[in-house]
Design goal:
Blueprint: H1 3-29, E1 31-37, E2 42-45, H2 47-52, H3 64-70, H4 76-87, E3 95-100, E4 106-118, E5 121-131, H5 133-151, E6 155-160, E7 165-168, H6 170-176, H7 180-183, H8 198-209, E8 214-221, E9 227-238, E10 244-253, H9 257-277, E11 281-285, E12 291-294, H10 303-306, H11 320-333, E13 337-342, E14 348-358, E15 361-371, H12 373-395, E16 399-406, E17 409-415, H13 417-423, E18 433-434, H14 442-458, E19 462-469, E20 474-484, E21 493-500, H15 502-535, H16 537-554, H17 560-591, E22 597-600, H18 601-611, H19 613-619, E23 622-625, E24 630-633, H20 635-651, E25 659-667, E26 670-677, H21 709-719, E27 724-728, E28 734-741
Parallel strand pairs: 23-25
Antiparallel strand pairs: 1-2, 1-5, 3-4, 4-5, 6-7, 6-10, 8-9, 9-10, 11-12, 11-15, 13-14, 14-15, 16-17, 16-21, 17-18, 19-20, 20-21, 22-24, 25-26, 26-28, 27-28
Helix pairs in contact: 15-17, 16-17, 17-21, 18-20, 20-21
């Protein structure tokens, strides 16, 4: 690298560091920056500017239209005027506007901007944007507080640590006769009457400098020389580091006794009113720990039953020494303390204990008691949940843990016991180790890193399976990884759950091989049934023909036994011929199937009715139907199925005239066809049996048939991807139903 390249690289590095530091400083100050280059027609936003509007840095192009879209409708005109002033080389003051963030939150942003020109040509604009919502709210709150203090009836004064006035309100001017300008910078000694000795002021200063509130009575002198008695409280104001910086004095003229009584009553009423509506329990006791006031009742007792009794009566015996220590500490030294306690009512409380002062002396103790039972139960629930999760984490029969990606390797943060057993390491020794050091092959580290990064990009869990081959063993693993949300500058972390599916894969492979073998066997069986039933028809026809010839030529010429034997041969050969024809039709469901096509079921039903016209007329049957939809399938096979179901409805009836109805309805992604009759019905215990080959519930003498019809229907329906079933009750007819998917895939 030559010197020019090195210098340029150094400059680029400094620029990157400068940009990084700028982004960090903007993140700390929550001030975003923006710019528009009118020469290049380009704009840019800092990372913090994106975050202020609720976006991740560079998540979307931050255009002027997008920015204006986030401005509150009532502030848009003002915003556009401000931008126009900037573009017109009029440097306007900072503008405060309401912004609707991406998440819908309304915030107040302060914008500042400057335009840069070359002659009269506008080159670019740059500016800053800052979320000043809290500042504006604080300013408003401060304004309200200042107005309230200014309008307060009591005289209020603020002094610095040296005791010099820095602010007084209007009531102070009225009470003392000193105008604000006269009092500011002066010491409260301008009001000194000489009626209090040095020890009084010494005790006062010791109290407030120690951080405690002083309150009491003091005789002061107005500007006109008139003495008056005032009731005053002085409260120290501390900085965040605890150092006292100012004192707030609230004083009131109590010169007249009547006024004093009225003020005392009003003060007590105000205090009791506030205490009554306070959510916490407020308790006041005297120096003997006897309760003088309580704002809320406690379980099973009224306020009247509590007042006048000792604090310690309501404390569990085991906690009495602890509570006594805090109460006595407040009474003796003015210490303020707090503690948690399980009350006698089995509820948890947070108690703050502090002294009550009168005339500079401790006159009692106050306790503010907050019910924290809900919080304690929530904490306990969290602890139990963490314990449960940890137990599940360690006992789960899967690999589980968290990792980070460091360079080109995976760094394990935490792992459960099963993970350590899988990698063959001792308990706890897998944490804080790289996958490479655990013997994981490079190709698998790269595989996992790709899936981790995909999970982070998509913000969705990523699932994958692979065969983990290494020196220990070969395992099929099913893994799920997900990205764990983190702070923008933090290293990304990921969680993983891995299941050993080796046995499952072996079972799946065995099932697949068995299914292939079974499919081949079924195909061979179907082919055999087809060939056998086809080839056997010729000899059966020969037997039947000669048997009929014998019956025709020799009927009545031989003895009765011969005539009966010939009749048996004829009937047997006829049954064999029908049986072979039925078997042939059954085998042709798969061996002679045709590709699927659109089938109009109304036309199929009409064809079936024509085929069965003689049977329908002979039985006097009534066949009705609802409009039937068009389906996808094998028209000839669907005709066979309907013909068998309707033929059975005609065949299996008692003395009643057969009434048959065909209907169809949509159910999910399939159509359900039903054939309903008023026949003899079927006992539910035979529902499964009737769909098997050669299964009959009646003798051939009672009802003729081969016992193949319903088996043929079942095979046709299942080939179309559907199912068939019957609903019936013996003596009350039957309803045979079958489904056909909307897009039937014929196998």
């Amino acid at each position: 690298m030559n010197k020019a390249d090195a210098k340029r690289a150094g400059v680029e590095r400094e620029l990157r560091e400068s940009e990084h530091n700028l982004n960090l400083s903007q993140g700390v100050t929550r001030i975003g920056s923006w710019g528009i280059d009118f020469e290049k027609n380009q704009g840019w936003w800092s990372n913090e500017a994106y975050r202020l509007f609720g976006y991740e840095p560079h998540e979307v192009p931050m255009t002027q239209e997008l920015f204006i879209g986030h401005v509150h409708p009532s502030d848009k005109d003002m915003m556009l005027r401000w931008m126009g002033d900037c573009a017109a080389n009029i440097r306007p003051p900072a503008v405060d506007m309401r912004i609707i963030r991406r998440d819908g939150a309304e915030r107040i942003f302060r914008g500042e901007g400057s335009a840069y020109f070359e002659g009269e040509r506008l080159l670019r604009m740059v500016g800053t944007v800052q979320d000043v919502t809290e500042r504006k709210q604080a300013e408003e709150q401060l304004h309200l507080q200042s107005a309230a203090l200014e309008a307060a009836a009591d005289a209020i004064a603020v002094t610095d640590k040296d005791g010099l006035y820095v602010w007084v309100n209007k009531a102070f001017e009225t009470l003392t006769g000193y105008a604000r300008a006269e009092a500011i910078g002066k010491n409260p000694r301008i009001l000194k009457s000489g009626k209090q000795d040095a020890s009084f002021y010494k005790e006062l200063w010791e109290t407030i400098l120690s951080g405690n509130v002083w309150w009491g009575k003091i005789i002061n002198r107005r500007k006109d020389g008139v003495l008056y008695v005032e009731e005053q409280s002085i409260t120290p104001v501390r900085r965040s580091d605890g150092e006292v910086t100012h004192f707030v004095s609230v004083k009131r003229d109590i010169s007249e006794r009547v006024q004093l009584q009225d003020q005392l009553i009003q003060s007590e009423e105000k205090w009791r009113s506030v205490a009554t509506f306070a959510p916490d329990m407020i308790l006041v006791a005297d120096t003997n720990a006897t309760i003088q006031f309580i704002n809320h009742t406690i379980p099973t007792m009224t306020v009247e039953q509590v007042v006048g009794r000792s604090i310690y009566e309501f404390v569990p015996e085991k906690d009495s020494p602890l509570v006594r220590t805090y109460v006595e500490g407040a009474l003796s030294t003015g210490a303020v303390s707090s503690y948690e306690i399980l009350g006698i009512d089995q509820l948890w409380y947070f108690v703050r204990v502090g002294p009550i002062r009168q005339g500079g002396e401790i006159a009692g103790v106050s306790m503010i008691i907050t019910d924290i039972t809900g919080m304690k139960r929530a904490e306990e629930a969290v602890r139990r949940s963490e314990s449960t999760l940890r137990s599940f984490f360690d006992s789960a029969g899967m690999l589980m843990g968290t990792v980070e990606i460091h360079g080109d390797d995976i760094f394990h943060i935490s792992n459960n016991r099963y993970s350590e057993e899988f990698f063959g390491v001792s308990r706890g020794s897998m944490d804080q180790r790289y996958a490479g050091s655990l013997g994981v092959p490079r190709e698998f580290i790269d595989l996992w890193m790709r899936h981790y990064r995909r999970a982070e990009e998509t913000r969705e869990p990523v699932r994958f399976e692979y065969e983990h081959c290494w020196e220990r063993s070969n395992k099929w693993l099913s893994a799920t990884v997900s990205s764990i949300p983190a702070q923008p500058d933090a290293v990304s972390r990921y969680a993983f759950i891995v299941e050993d599916v080796t046995a499952k894969k072996s079972r799946e492979e065995a099932i697949r091989l068995y299914a292939e073998k079974l499919e081949r066997s079924n195909q061979e069986l179907d082919q055999f049934a087809y060939v056998a039933s086809h080839d056997l028809q010729e000899p059966v026809r020969t037997i039947s023909g000669y048997a009929q010839l014998l019956a025709k030529r020799y009927a009545g010429k031989l003895d009765n036994d011969a005539d009966e034997f010939i009749r048996f041969i004829v009937e047997g050969s006829d049954r064999m011929k029908r049986l072979l024809q039925d078997v042939l039709r059954l085998s042709r469901v798969t061996t002679k199937a045709v590709p699927s096509a659109a089938v109009n079921m109304n036309e199929v039903l009409r064809a079936v009715a024509d085929d069965l016209r003689f049977s329908i007329e002979e039985a006097g049957a009534t066949l009705t139907n609802d409009p039937l939809p068009e389906v996808v399938g094998d028209a000839e096979q669907l005709r066979q199925a309907l013909q068998n179901l309707i033929g059975n409805a005609i065949k299996f009836h008692d003395t009643k005239v057969p009434v048959i109805h065909v209907s169809a309805r949509q159910e999910g992604d399939a159509t359900v066809f039903s054939v309903q009759d008023n026949g003899i019905g079927i006992d539910p215990k035979f529902f499964d049996r009737i769909f098997l080959v050669f299964q009959r519930l009646h003798t051939r003498e009672e009802i003729p048939g081969s016992g193949i019809g319903l088996a043929l229907c079942k095979k046709i329906v299942e080939r179309h991807g559907g199912r068939i079933w019957v609903e019936s009750e013996e003596g009350h007819g039957s309803t045979f139903s079958f489904t056909l998917p909307h897009r039937s895939a014929i196998s």
